[in-house]
Design a protein that fits this description.
187 residues, mainly alpha, elongated
Length: 187
């Protein structure tokens, strides 16, 4: 009796916290670990894993964009900050170093973003299989049939385009930025 009451209170508190922060998820991992979870518990678990991986992607993307914004400002300042005391040597040293750093950071972000999207894809696949297996869960999906599922997946892929291509764009941009000081110096 006490355990059931405590579990109900925790469940209500988790729902309240989920509305406020949108981050915490129901702790279904213990239910799944105990074996024989219901379809609803499995659905909650899959969605909590998808939410977690989505937050991981968002965190990695925010870190990438923040670092790139800082480096672009530093690069622009270094390009325009030539002084008579240092001359052109600092313009030929700092901007290429910022370019190299931006290139490396973008290259390092790419595998993490791809890995998180791969994990999201696997969890979504398990969720789709659960929806196909349990017709009672069709009220809990935005895509109750195959056509709508394909359409939703297509929209999700278009929505994730920025996250997938941002590192490549930064890699290309930093490659070009790395050569600009030398081009201007030789010109």
């Amino acid at each position: 009796m006490k355990d059931t009451l405590a579990l109900n209170i925790i469940t209500v508190l988790q729902k309240v916290l989920m509305v406020e922060t949108a981050s915490p998820s129901p702790d279904t991992s213990q239910i799944v670990a105990q074996g024989h979870p219901t379809d609803n518990e499995l659905l909650a678990f899959y969605r909590s894993e998808i939410r977690f991986e989505t937050e991981v992607v968002n965190g990695r993307l925010q870190a990438l964009l923040g670092s790139q914004a800082f480096l672009v400002i530093a690069y622009a300042t270094a390009m325009t900050g030539s002084t008579k005391r240092w001359g052109d040597s600092m313009v030929l040293l700092l901007p290429p170093l910022f370019s190299l750093l931006g290139f490396v950071l973008a290259a390092m972000a790419l595998p993490g973003i791809r890995a998180a999207y791969a994990a999201i894809g696997k969890w979504e696949g398990k969720q789709r299989m659960l929806h196909q297996r349990s017709q009672a869960l069709t009220d809990f999906t935005l895509a109750p049939n195959e056509d709508e599922t394909r359409d939703m997946m297509r929209r999700a892929q278009r929505g994730a385009l920025f996250a997938h291509q941002a590192p490549f764009i930064f890699i290309i941009a930093w490659t070009i930025f790395g050569f600009i000081p030398f081009y201007l110096y030789l010109k």
